[in-house]
Amino acid sequence: MGRTDHASRVIAASPATVYGALLDRESLETWLPPDGMRGRIERWDPRPGGGFRMILTYLDPEGSPGKTSDATDVVDVGFADLVPNERVVQRAVFEAEDPSLAGTLTMTWHLAAAGDGTEVTVTAADVPPGIDQAAHEEGIASSLANLAAYVEAAG
């Protein structure tokens, strides 16, 4: 069993708007990749039991070795639970030959109304030991900042 990483942010958008961005293919490709990466979704099935496959590519792979190849992280994500405007639970498996990166990472995106916005709390459970904690939490925070910018600009 791996560790648990966390990040949270209040976003100036309704829970319904944030939830929509968590389940829209084009939105995810735009905001989910952390700074220094771009993403492309290959497969998309937004329902419980469905999921997606995302290719994350490092814009500058120097010093940022990917999990799947020198420049990429490939992740298969399943939707384990979808509760409209409240929660999205994803199970993510990275394609990697390194056994320290193996396993299923559970990402829970919890949405709670906070004044005129939404507090988004991300909990990553069973994080494989080969994923650096500080870098992972920084990546989650970066994705949350991207999500905020994306939905706040649309609102």
From TrEMBL:
Q: CDD domains, alphabetically?
A: SRPBCC_CalC_Aha1-like_2
**What is this protein's record name?**
ATPase
- Report the sequence similarity comment from the record: Belongs to the AHA1 family.
Please give the organism: Saccharopolyspora elongata
Q: Which Gene3D superfamilies match?
A: 3.30.530.20
Database matches in InterPro entries? ASHA1/2-like_C (IPR013538), START-like_dom_sf (IPR023393)
Domain (Activator of Hsp90 ATPase homologue 1/2-like C-terminal) spans 13-152
